[in-house]
Automatic annotation (TrEMBL):
InterPro entries: Cu-oxidase-like_N, Cu-oxidase_2nd, Cu-oxidase_C, Cu-oxidase_fam, Cu_oxidase_Cu_BS, Cupredoxin. GO terms for molecular function: copper ion binding; oxidoreductase activity. It holds the Pfam family Cu-oxidase_3. Keywords: Metal-binding, Oxidoreductase. It comes from the Bacteria. It comes from Waterburya agarophytonicola KI4. Residues 62-172, 212-301, 356-479 form the Plastocyanin-like domain. The keyword Protein biosynthesis does not apply. PROSITE patterns: MULTICOPPER_OXIDASE2. CDD domains: CuRO_1_Tth-MCO_like, CuRO_3_Tth-MCO_like. This is Multicopper oxidase family protein. SUPFAM superfamilies: Cupredoxins.
Length: 481
């Protein structure tokens, strides 16, 4: 079966420009890819500099065996993986060859929010170029971050076209011996909707209120890829939900995950979990221990109901997120033996934050707004690019109460600074973790605590169901020095 063969070799590839699993034939005797269309290059920094050319353009790609015309960075689905270390300078010479304006957001990175860094107010017109340049601080956490377009009104459409890639910061965490010994793989989850000529489906036919979802689910641009692992081996899977609206509820058949990190930051120690709910924007970093017998684990996507609009505004029907049967996203095969690898016991310590200076409330809902009609609202208002919705002081700590009074789940994302979840519906959250995107389920009240550190300037917070964001569920945040 053409769609299912792709095999993986060992991880821990060397230096400079190396490939992901499809490039592995250079180092091992794994099967060759059937098509070069899905090669995902990796750009790694050297001598403190990560520098590359990045071009956004529509390209013909091989998407899980079928030809598709998608929006790409450098012709790749997913986009090239970028890897830098704390202390490195990043310089990206970006060209916009799309037919619309765009820009780039570096999701989860703690870097400057203004100038040519993580500035989502930049607008790069078709045919224009811009060089992004920023430094990753020497104390930046190691983690799995990502990049994608962020021009308000076009974010969902451009992401759904395929524009998304991982941005890895390799640091201390990755030096832990057990993690170094593990086989590392990266899974970028995306969904697409194509017509019978391989063109992107017209958004006029999609439920933008629910958030667009495609019927094709791709893992690294492939349909159910396979990962080959050694018996007794340890697999480190870094997973990104790069879909604009689809939630993934992940489980392994016959095995648990050992989660070591959320969005961009590790836990203090691995935590055994049977399921991972990954909302749009979120990442997870998990270990999988292969048994000593040979066999296969299937990575499943289980059904999840993220709420629906039901009957409203003239009988618009919501729909369920996933079908009722689990979807196999990938297969993990384990065969030849290695001596059994062990899990790490300690990762990076996390300190709880001191009490906040300020507490704010954010009510999330959809509804009618006199100015714009049906919209997604924060505190009753849709996004207005000319307003400063929230003003905070640099070097302070705030609690934000996120209250979902609507009928759909909203994953809430804040740019530039990570936060800790303090409680859900008043019940203290026991797991200490840093996140940049948190799910606020319908009817739920989530309290988060956030230090505003290092970078002043204007940025945004929003729902990461990107149609909700484009339809108004976003606010401007001014961090004043
Ligand atoms: Cu990944 Cu403001 O977004
Ligand atoms: Cu939402």
């Amino acid at each position: 079966n053409r769609r299912q063969f792709i095999a993986l070799g060992t991880a821990s590839m060397g230096t400079a420009l190396v490939g992901n699993w499809l490039y592995q034939e250079k180092k091992s005797s794994q099967p060759k890819p059937l098509s070069s269309a899905n090669l995902t290059p990796v750009y790694q920094s050297s001598n403190g500099l990560l520098e590359l050319d990045l071009e956004a353009r529509e390209s013909l790609v091989n998407l899980g065996g079928q030809q598709a015309s998608l929006l790409t960075y450098n012709g790749q689905i997913p986009a090239p993986r970028l890897e830098a270390k704390p202390g490195d300078t990043v310089r990206i010479h970006f060209t916009n060859n799309l037919e619309q304006p765009t820009n780039i957001h570096y999701h989860g990175l703690h870097i400057p929010l203004v100038g040519n860094a993580d500035n989502v107010f930049l607008k790069i017109e078709p045919g224009k170029q811009l060089t992004y340049e920023f430094q990753i601080a020497s104390n930046h956490p190691s983690g799995t971050f990502w990049y994608h377009p962020h021009l308000h009104g076009l974010v969902a459409e451009q992401l759904f076209g395929g524009l998304a890639g991982m941005f890895i910061v390799r640091g201390e965490l990755d030096e832990i011996p057990e993690l170094k010994a593990a086989q590392e793989e990266f899974l970028v989850l995306q969904d697409f909707s194509l017509d019978n000529r391989g063109k992107r489906a017209d958004s006029a036919h999609m439920s933008l209120m629910m958030g667009r979802e495609g019927d094709i689910i791709a893992v690294n641009g492939q349909a159910n890829p396979s990962i080959n692992l050694l018996k007794g081996g340890l697999l480190r899977l870094r997973i990104l939900n790069a879909s604009p609206s689809r939630f993934y509820r992940l489980a392994l058949e016959d095995s648990a995950f050992y989660q070591i990190a959320t969005d961009g930051n590790s836990f203090s120690e691995p935590i055994e979990v049977n399921e991972l709910l990954l909302t749009p924007g979120q990442r997870t970093d998990v270990l999988v221990k292969a048994s000593q017998e040979s066999g296969q684990y299937r990575l499943l996507n289980l059904p999840y109901d993220r709420g629906s609009i039901g009957m409203m505004g003239g009988g618009m029907m919501g729909r369920r997120n996933n079908s009722d049967t689990p979807i196999v996203l990938a297969k993990i095969n384990y065969k030849s033996t290695v001596e059994s690898l062990t899990l790490p016991t300690k990762l990076a310590p996390i300190e709880p934050l001191p009490e906040p200076q300020t507490v704010r409330r954010f009510e999330l809902n959809h509804g009618m707004n006199p100015a714009v009609g049906m919209a997604f609202l924060i505190n009753g208002e849709p996004y207005d690019r000319d307003r400063l919705h929230t003003q905070v002081q640099l070097n302070t700590i705030e609690d934000w109460e996120l209250i979902n009074i609507g009928v759909m789940d909203h994953p809430f994302h804040i740019h530039g600074n990570a936060f800790q979840v303090i409680s859900r519906n008043g019940i203290p959250e026991l797991l200490l973790a840093w996140r940049d995107t948190v799910l606020v389920k319908r009817g739920e009240r989530v309290r988060i605590r956030m230090p505003f550190r290092d970078f002043a300037g204007k940025t945004v917070y929003h729902c990461h169901v990107l149609d909700h964001e484009d339809l108004g569920m976003m606010g401007n945040l001014m961090i004043s020095a």
